[in-house]
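User: Amidophosphoribosyltransferase, Candidatus Desulfatibia vada:
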Amino acid sequence: MDFSEKPREACGVFGIYGHPEGATLTYFGLYALQHRGQESAGIAAARDNRIVDHRGMGLVPDIFDVNHLEHLEGGSAIGHVRYSTTGSSVLANAQPFVVHHRKRSYAIAHNGNLVNAHTLKMELEETGSIFQTTMDTEIFLHYFVKSLKLGFEGALVETVSRLKGAYSFVMLTSNGEVVGIKDPNGFRPLCLGKLNGHYILASETCALDLVHAELVRELDPGEIVIISEKGIKSIKTQAAASRSFCIFEFIYFARPDSTIYGQNVYQTRKAHGRRLAQEAPAEADLVMPFPDSGTYAALGYSEASKIPFEMAMIRNHYVGRTFIQPTQSMRDFGVRVKLNPVKNLLKGKDIIIIEDSIIRGTTVKTRVKALRELGVKKIHMRVSGPPHRFPCHYGIDFSTRGELIAADKSVEELKELLGLDSLAYLSLPGLLESTGIKNPENNFCKACFDGCYQVEFDEQLSKDCLE
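Assistant: Predicted structure for Amidophosphoribosyltransferase:
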């Protein structure tokens, strides 16, 4: 039972070229990116002109041991941690995905969602393609091998031209080349690093930090980077007129120690909290988060409001993804096992709870009720982003409006439904301005807040459209 109501993002990717301990470094890179996907993980490595791989369901340390990594060592490697937004949660859909074609092998790992996957798959099947998985990732390799008559680089460019949606790919060939690809809108993060002369690709800079690599730069929207014995080559495909980086990376997805868009995520979240305190002040005895959600925005809110910050809810860090179902007489066990209040801090107090988002609302409602029963006098909630009113089609797991509690309710209605004394959200202008990015209106995807989608999609297709 996973009691978090937070949205989950598609995946995290990592790749390294030509390092004798490539698989081990990839393992550590995936460890750093574990927050981006806890469903499955895998590593593929180029060894003796072939690709060897190991994949499994669960967390990175549960899937790999020393023997696995020794088998995978050889030079170049790519890795992947997954949460499925397209395709079932089964081992066949774990990545990297590997194919063999004309005495060469290719592996690919993907973060994002192809919004034209259903159309592309039907087109490929009509020309004889047979699919092994329900992932949209597999579509890339089908088009790639069909386009190899154009040469390796030509095949990459031709394949990318057919794709629509949000994607950051890392690809590995049996010869050891490592390729990074970012979609024309730049929805998903992908950066380039360097470790003792060996280039690295990673979803976030926290993975570079863990392996002591330096950040070179972030890939540009529409860029293909090919890393080989010849060095590094950049190919610029047609970028979109404006960037569409997912604003939710700053709000929730990215690790706080990562740097994206040139901004530290920790400091950006604190800035969101400071702006929230200006826009939506409240009188209270303390400011608190529900760990770990909203912690950094709560620090900023406390700093700006001069109201003391307290960790008045203590998180149990040893709660696994699954445990024995509680009995009916213990129906609130699911809340208490993960977070427990510090009663002496809270009883008789007026409090401000800082959240980074309210998606489905069920967990928030239960926790607010528990605080009331504890004797908290007034409960104000402040959210460090605007209300989520529209589904995401670019790789986040709320794909229908019915999943979003704020889709058809006013803030006042939400306040009553959640049992709060007051509720306020950070405004969209406030969110964008507090990122510190120049011209933020032209740099971020905000579709989940304003319904303005940057890439067209087929509304009839569900997120499991490939099945």
